[in-house]
Amino acid sequence: MHADVDARPRRWLKGASLLFLSALALSGMSDRPAQAQTVTAVMHSGVRILDPIITTAHISRNHGYMVFDTLLAMDSKYRPQPQMAEYKVSEDGLTYTFTLRDGLLWHDGTPVTAEDCVVSLKRWAARDAGGQMLMDRTESLAAADARTITLKLKEPFAYTLDMIAKPSAVPAFMMPKRIASTAPTEAIPEQIGSGPFRFVAGEFQPGVKVVYEKFKEYKPRSEPVDWLAGGKVVNVDRVEWVTMPDAQTAINALMSGEIDYMEQPPVDLLPIMEGNEDITVDIFNELGYQTMGRMNFLHPPFNNPTIRRAALLAMNQEDVLQALVGNPEYYSACASMYGCGVPLASDSGAGPITKKGDPKEAQRLLKEAGYDGTPIVLMQPTDVTSVSPQPVVAAQLLRKAGFNVDLQPMDWQTLVGRRASQNPPSQGGWNMFFTNWVIPEVWTPLVNPMLNGRGPKGAWFGWPDDPKLEQLRNAFVQAKTPEAQKEAAVAIQTHAYETVNYIPLGQYTSPAAWRKSLTGIVKAPVPIFWNVKKSK
């Protein structure tokens, strides 16, 4: 959102370009095959980046779940369950054996093999914070035969199954070997998975429309669907995601029946739909999202920890949350980097972040650090309401503290591509951006993508090189009791606030809306379209 997700007062965007995009998306509906039962959805963002491994953008992850499948999946009790494969673990906890189900096929008709999955796991692990730690402890990962994957560890790693099953931010999606062999820094050339839907390349309009068709050869599991686990039963012929940047236009289309589903209607427009007897409004992810700001550690001025600290002190959560959500019923201040309402939640090290900040202390720190007025290139997406307000508010707060801010507007997908650049801001890089995470993406130091200190070659965008953070994460892995884990997590958060690894800006929930002609929608931290039925 997003994901990985114009300011709130300017949400009602107008102009010929928006009307053109919406008309283009809706006009494409006439291209549907005759008699095809189609679910039409407006997601939080258009789709341009299709590789769900090279980015943590939620829209790319959502696309990944349509096309690709996973060896394991997480159920609603946060337990790893078999999906593509059954598994067993040796008594010493060092050998994990995964056996693929019979009859698994790629969308091109070729069989899924263990070798495909081994290459996929290695590519995933190169980009994922938890996967990196798993590979640190891996002695070997190989295909024993066409259906058997053997993972041997050098030391026990109790989180092995959790990492392979985790729903986000980078899920361990399986791909054919020829595709998974793509360097983890480059986008895959094809969208061939083994998931319940097939990507229709001929109808893809980047940023405007993406189409999926039921993969008729997909064999769902027999267990009932539960979160992301269980049987992925597809009951419709097609799913189309169309882009409507203007929220009012999308809501009108939903109420008129032109579309069936809207992933993230703005909270202040919910009353329009709540009184409509044909519309359901509900929250899928009850833990909600964390919104946050990330700075670039590679280039001035945020390569200076004192200046990062000044930026932290300039912020306050209430201003950001009020602009982003508006209704306190749907948001709350939260100092924890793991989110609130989870076992590892803590306010350790947070200082004034949940209050009104401390702009005077920020000014003092800037003077102490010798800040020379270097402009802060702050990227602002204008087409996604869940990430548009934060940079506008942040720019005001940073300027109040004495920063020179260059607020640069762009669409979200441009930002998602640009944030991967390690160039200086003057050469197409950046200094700061904002995004959101579902709480299950951040609730432990292993899955939280920002709490990774592996520098330019391994850390998440911003690329902190922080050996102490890595030592603390290893201490968390080695903790044997919940109490010891909590102590280690507190130490990580305290250190992360000291170094200003990132700036948590609060927690909020985001309802979805859909027509009551849709039934069977699964509550999960990811919007999914299997199990959905559509009546006339």
Number of strands: 21
Task: Indicate the low-confidence ranges by residue numbers.
Answer: 5-24
| CATH domain fold name of the largest domain | Dipeptide-binding Protein, domain 3
How far apart are the first and last residues' alpha carbons, in Å?
Answer: 31 Å
Mean residue pLDDT:
91
Written overview of the protein:
By secondary structure, the chain is an alpha+beta fold. It has 3 domains: 8-68 and 195-285 and 512-534, Periplasmic binding protein-like II (D-Maltodextrin-Binding Protein, domain 2), CATH 3.40.190.10; 72-180, Dipeptide-binding Protein, domain 1; 289-508, Dipeptide-binding Protein, domain 3 (Roll), CATH 3.10.105. Helix content is 27%, strand content 18%. The protein has 15 helices and 21 strands. The protein has helices spanning 16-27, 58-67, 114-127, 129-136, 160-165, 177-180, 247-256, 270-274, 305-314, 317-324, 359-369, 389-400, 412-418, 467-478, 482-499; strands at 38-42, 72-74, 80-82, 85-89, 95-100, 138-145, 148-153, 197-199, 209-214, 238-242, 261-262, 279-282, 289-295, 331-332, 376-381, 405-410, 432-438, 503-508, 512-515, 518-519, 533-534. The chain has a 7-stranded mixed β-sheet with strand order 8-9-10-1-11-19-12. Strands 4-5-7-6 form a 4-stranded antiparallel β-sheet. Strand 2 and strand 3 form a beta hairpin. Helix 9 (305-314) packs antiparallel against helix 11 (359-369). It starts with 15 loop residues before the first helix and ends with a strand. Mean pLDDT is 91; it is low at 5-24.
